[in-house]
Amino acid sequence: MKVGRDRRDSRWDAHREQRRVQLVGSAIGAIRRQGAGLGMDEIAAAAGTSKTVIYRHFGDRTGLYTAICESVAGVLLAEVRRATADALADPAHGPRAAVAAGIDAYLQLIESDPELYRFVVHRPLLAQGHGGRRGTGDAADSGTDPVNDLVTVIGDEVAGAIAGYLPAPSGAGGTPVARIWGHAIVGLVRGAADDWLARPDGTSRDRLTAHLTDLAWSGLSGLAPHAQEVRS
Description:
The chain is mainly α. The chain is built from ten helices and no strands.
């Protein structure tokens, strides 16, 4: 016979989830103020609590890092989806404008939140050593990589936008070519974005978006010559 959870236990689920959200929000605020290299002591102090309490909610520093990544991913993915959808909904625009809008949404996060981006992508918290009651602080211990998961989701999103306007045959093994193109564009943007952040040379976000869109679209339009290029 299946036994349900005790109501006295389940009624605290919402409270625990709310507390997790609060702790993630405090950590993100601390990262913005103090930089990507802050440690667990600074994160706990910013939240007005102890590392023990944080570990109680997240297990270890990897759990906290993953939760922060998930929060950032949710915001970024929503922005990419909104930007590309708005571009595609405008009859005066087209797939090229959608590619530009998606690239710009990604770069906007870096421009507005550079320390948070560094924290997510370069994993300084996990490089600081072992911590917590389980695991070693290595993302591999949890069997997941939040950054790669985020890149995969965004790549699939871009692929979906491409597939709607640039129909193409499947590649080897039946893999849709649009998926290959979508993930290639994400890799292109991420590599250029990392360099833009690490070695600023005065290039504006708008200018970088234009350069990357030109490069991405020249490849896409060449591979799918039937697609109509519509500039915004």
